[in-house]
Specification:
Elements: E1 7-9, E2 19-21, E3 30-32, H1 38-54, H2 91-105, H3 114-126, H4 129-135, H5 137-154, H6 167-176, H7 180-183, H8 187-203, H9 207-223, H10 232-235, H11 237-261, H12 284-305, E4 311-313, H13 314-343, H14 352-382, H15 392-417, H16 429-447, H17 454-470, H18 474-499, H19 522-526, E5 535-536, H20 548-551, E6 553-554, H21 555-563, H22 568-579, H23 585-588
Antiparallel strand pairs: 1-4, 2-3, 5-6
Helix pairs in contact: 1-18, 2-3, 2-5, 4-5, 5-6, 5-8, 8-9, 8-11, 9-11, 11-12, 12-13, 12-14, 13-14, 13-21, 13-22, 14-15, 14-16, 15-16, 15-17, 16-17, 16-18, 17-18
């Protein structure tokens, strides 16, 4: 039977690969625009819109005139040279910096055994530091990297220096790094040091170098078998636990770095046999790390399966998205469990690790639904010279998905703007969450200006970026300039569409047997299930089992989950809507406009 469903563009990319001229001072002649990179997406979107609106290539667009934000350089020291131990912080301050690093990184990563590091830290200061730095060179490198991170996290001021915070100790650590040909011999310590160095490089906008250092850490980890289920009888429970935590730290970083750079994953999931589930003795950190690994896996799956270089049949896209949303619903249940336990007898706010996981969750939703906005945007650009458009079929099938993408972008900005004390300035994750949500909402506002307050949300995004800039993040300044330029293109598109007589699109379309498909509001939907003691007893969704923690959740937990945009019930409902649209695709599209979308 012929498939007459509409087609959509899931990506602004085409083959052969697109490259742009390299404007940095190195020997690269070009920069390849990778398919799934957010920076690449912004660059290609800028080129696409500029050529459609102005018939010219945007040579002066900020994203096309790249400058090195932090020009880091170092010279390697010979292995026979004694490490420089001058100018180190006191033991008290070094301990404080170590605690700072644990606070900022400990919920999302497991770079080293904290007790062992603390013991060696005291030994270093109370013993013979020069001898220990020389004999245990890689630990001293790890120590310098920890100090550089701690210094960076505490820096909250803007300076005129072209060097990033903590660079003094980072450069010293990197100059001491052993030769790559023999580094693997230091096993776990080498993996940990390389991973720390990669994260620092990524945080100062050196994505290429970060990806390379992380790749080496992963290769050494594979030589040690960290990606497999190691024997506790042979190596001991503590060592196996350390290896498992270190592997999933590398995995999370690899998925994130690869997605950011638009590059293939270093290790495929089919090659991994180590358990992703935390051990039986659960802690909040174990659960957060496991859930973050699962969401990182899902994000890479979305980018590998959804984003294509050619038009995709809409029903095929919806089938893939339905599977993604079902997985997200399951992850939402895990977040609901965490929140239920946390809020059971507490006035505590969102834990740092759960906050990051929640933002990663919303990023998955945004990335999964972004192709729909992109396809509508490309169609509107193509129709600027026409007086009539037909969006009924497309919007009837996609409006619910478009809505949840907008909602996740909005919730991301709300979470980030409502937590000034938790806003991460040095690590780029909060910056990337902000930037991705802002671009998504800017696209949506250009197409659906009547559906939400796009101006207010844009101001919120700029407020977050400006806060990062005032606290010394120079990378945020670059992203803000890119966002401003792209927002101006979206504004021009809206003006052109209006002048051409094209009506603003709306998601409140009356098409379909049931009318508009509204999103589920958990607080309103669940009010009828609250008993006299204030306990929420949710009915189970057919085919989707719920845990005892969720079906007996306190009302404050429900309201909090709604405030951060987490609802497994909502996503299970949307999965059912996608699976039962009320009309077959063939009726919705008779094939007459088969090539229009």
């Amino acid at each position: 039977m012929a498939d007459h469903s509409p087609n959509i563009w899931t990506s602004p990319f085409s083959l052969p690969s697109t490259t742009i001229k390299n404007t940095q001072r190195n020997r690269r002649s070009w920069i390849w625009l990778a398919p799934s990179s957010m920076w690449s997406f912004t660059t290609r979107l800028t080129i696409l819109m500029s050529e459609k609106l102005y018939n010219q290539y945007p040579h002066n667009a900020p994203t096309l005139v790249q400058k090195e934000v932090y020009p880091l350089k170092w010279d390697s020291c010979a292995s026979k040279d004694a490490p420089d131990i001058s100018g180190l912080p006191s033991l008290d301050y070094a301990t404080y910096l170590f605690d700072t690093v644990k606070f900022h990184l400990g919920q999302s990563y497991r770079f080293f055994d904290e007790d062992s590091f603390a013991h060696k830290l005291i030994e270093f200061y109370n013993g013979e530091p020069a001898a220990m730095a020389r004999e245990d060179r890689l630990w001293f490198i790890q120590f310098l990297l920890v100090i550089s991170f701690g210094t960076s996290f505490l820096c909250r001021s803007r300076t005129d220096s072209d060097q990033p915070p903590g660079s003094k100790f980072f450069i010293r650590a990197m100059s001491l790094m052993p030769c790559h040909a023999s580094l693997w011999k230091d096993s776990l310590m080498a993996i940990e040091a390389l991973a720390l160095a990669a994260l620092y490089l990524y945080s100062v906008d050196k994505r290429e170098s970060a990806y390379i250092y992380l790749g080496q850490a992963i290769r050494i980890a594979q030589f040690e078998g960290l990606h497999t289920q190691l024997s506790e009888e042979q190596l001991g429970v503590k060592t196996v636990s350390r290896c498992r935590n270190l592997w999933w730290t590398l995995y999370i970083m690899d998925r994130h770095f690869s997605c950011s750079g638009g590059l293939p994953m270093t290790t495929q999931d089919s090659d991994i046999s180590v358990s992703m589930d935390p051990p039986a003795t659960l802690s909040h950190r174990d659960v957060a790390l496991s859930l973050q690994a699962r969401l990182s896996q899902l994000l890479s799956f979305i980018l590998q399966t959804v984003y294509k270089t050619e038009k995709t049949q809409l029903n095929a896209f919806l089938d893939t998205t339905r599977s993604i949303l079902r997985t997200l619903a399951g992850h939402a249940q895990e977040v609901e469990k965490i929140i239920h336990v946390r809020f059971r007898n507490s006035v505590d706010t969102l834990p740092r690790g759960t906050r990051h996981t929640t933002l990663l969750y919303h990023q998955c939703v945004i990335v999964a639904t972004r192709p729909l906005l992109l396809s509508a945007l490309k169609e509107r650009l193509e129709n600027l010279d026409t007086e009539k458009e037909d969006w009924q079929r497309f919007l009837y099938l996609t409006k619910t998905l478009i809505c949840i993408g907008i909602k996740s972008a909005t919730k991301s900005l709300q979470i980030l703007s409502n937590s000034d004390s938790l806003l991460e300035v040095f690590l780029l994750y909060d910056l990337e969450f902000t930037y991705g949500a802002a671009i998504h909402l800017a696209m949506a506002n250009a197409l659906f200006p009547q559906e939400f307050d796009g101006k207010a949300l844009s101001e919120k995004a700029h407020g977050i970026l400006n806060g990062m800039i005032s606290n010394g993040n120079r990378v945020a300044e670059v992203r803000r300039d890119e966002l401003v330029y792209l927002e101006s293109l979206f504004q021009e598109l809206s003006l052109r569409a209006e002048s051409c007589g094209l009506q603003p699109l709306t998601l409140c379309t009356p098409y379909g047997p049931e009318g508009p498909m509204s999103l589920v509001n958990p607080v309103q939907q669940w009010q009828e299930h609250i008993d006299e003691s204030g306990i929420l007893t949710l009915p189970t969704t057919p085919g989707y089992p719920q845990s005892p923690e969720i079906t007996n959740m306190q009302v404050p937990s429900v309201e909090f989950l709604d405030s951060i945009g987490i609802s497994s019930a909502e996503f299970f409902g949307i999965v059912d809507q996608i699976g039962d649209t009320g009309m077959p695709y063939g009726i919705l599209d008779d094939g007459s406009n088969e090539s229009s979308m």
